[in-house]
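Sample log: Flagellar biosynthesis protein FliA.
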Amino acid sequence: MLKEYQQTGSPELREKLINEYIHLVRSAAVQMRGMASGYAQEEDLVNQGVLALMDCLERYDETRGAKFETFAFLRVRGSLIDFIRSQDWVPHRARSLQRHIEEAFRQLANEKMREPEAAEVAAYMGLPTEKIESHLQYMDRASILSFEGMMQDAQENASRMEPESPDLSLRPEESYCRQELTEVLARAVEGLTEKERLVITLYYYEELKYADIARVLDVVESRVCQIHTKAVKKLRDSLREYMEG
């Protein structure tokens, strides 16, 4: 059906193909909705994803060896990342506030010999507690989004560098580039502090919410958010070094 559509451009076939692969769009939208919270509804993401899917129908080239589902999912997901970033990105004042909050956390931790709560940091800085908590959540989403964007670029670069062959049985299951990317990320995770590794493990592998992780670590939820942001930033920096050579 896809071959016939690319040859004829039939609107009817395009509609059938969209219905056939809409599950890829919805899956990507569900993954991204946490990062889009406050900026876009899930249906907005689905609409954007459908546009990306339509572009994939035009651009797909089976001679490159990748399955259409793999090609389309990566492109749709990348489109959603770009869409979310276009809705809201981190302004300079937010980064400046983040530096002040991190310094306040360090000062209070040294004074109290324990992890400070968001309310204590807010009082120290003379700001409302809600502002500190909402800012930490905002920076966490921004950090994840930036990392996801870099991962998307790295995965697409790896796909482009894979050996091409019309006979899929001759292609290795994973290319050297993908293996190398996995190893880079594994080393980056090993370079995290014990607490950062635990947060990353519980959040991404055990799929726990921040409130649950806070109970495991015996800290407040805002602190989990801050630890997660710092961990993702370290992973992002390691990935950037790899991608820049």
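Observation: Residues 1-88 form a domain with the Rna Polymerase Sigma Factor; Chain: A fold (CATH 1.10.1740.10).
Observation: The two ends are 41 Å apart (CA to CA).
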